[in-house]
Every structure is written in C-alpha cells, then in structure tokens.
Amino acid sequence: MRLLSMSIATLIVASSISISTPALANQDQLAANICNYVVSDDKNRLRKKLKESRVKLRNIYDGVSCNGDSLLRVAMKNGSNAVGTFVTKRLPVSNLGKAESDGLTIAAWAESNGHSASEITTAIKERLAGG
Prior knowledge:
This protein is an all-alpha fold. The chain is built from nine helices and no strands. It has helices at about 1-15, 20-40, 45-55, 55-60, 70-80, 80-90, 95, 105-110, 120-130. The longest helix has 19 residues, at about 20-40. It is globular, with a radius of gyration of 14 Å.
C-alpha cells in the first residue's frame, strides 16, 4: 500500500515522465477532487476520497497544488478551517516547517498574509511547538 501511495505522489510531481493517458487522467482527477474538497471545507469527503484512493495525505501533499498554492495555503485563503486543521494533523512536523516554493514556511506565509489568527495557523504553531 505504501508503494502505491509513493507511486501516485511521484506521478503527480513528475509530470514529465511518460505514462498512459488513463493513469494521468486519474491522477489529475484525484488532485482536482482534493482541491475542490479543500476549497469547499468538506473534510469528510476529503477523508473518503483519500481512503478510496488508498493514499495518505503526507505522501502526496508535496505533489498536489491548487492554482499554484499548497493545500494549507488554499485552506487559509478560503477559510476552510476543518480541512486545514485535518491536513495539519496528518502531515509530519517536518513538512510544516519546510519552506515552500516561494521560500516561506507555511507559518511565515500565514503571518505575512494576514492569516495569523486562523485556526489553521494556531494548529500549525501547536504542532511545530510539539503540542
């Protein structure tokens, strides 16, 4: 099962690898569904989709972006607190403290973009502090 999760993440990240059209379409659809559930703050459907697809969020988080933003940034921008805190709890602390594509960590980005009072930011800070 872990091999399947890693291969899905690899396929999403490495779009330059030649793969069959149906497999690519399935990966694109999974990413689109995940983004839609984050935007609509539908934690239950997100959990169900991840379980149906047999993937773990921590394995695909880096490979999924919604309009160029990470899932946590999209959750903060849309006020999707339930999904954002769910994602925060499912990710390893190393992911939460890692700089994203623009060089900012998710906590630094939240502070600089007016999301410092967000429930998601609070959850991230608690995880980073070891709580």
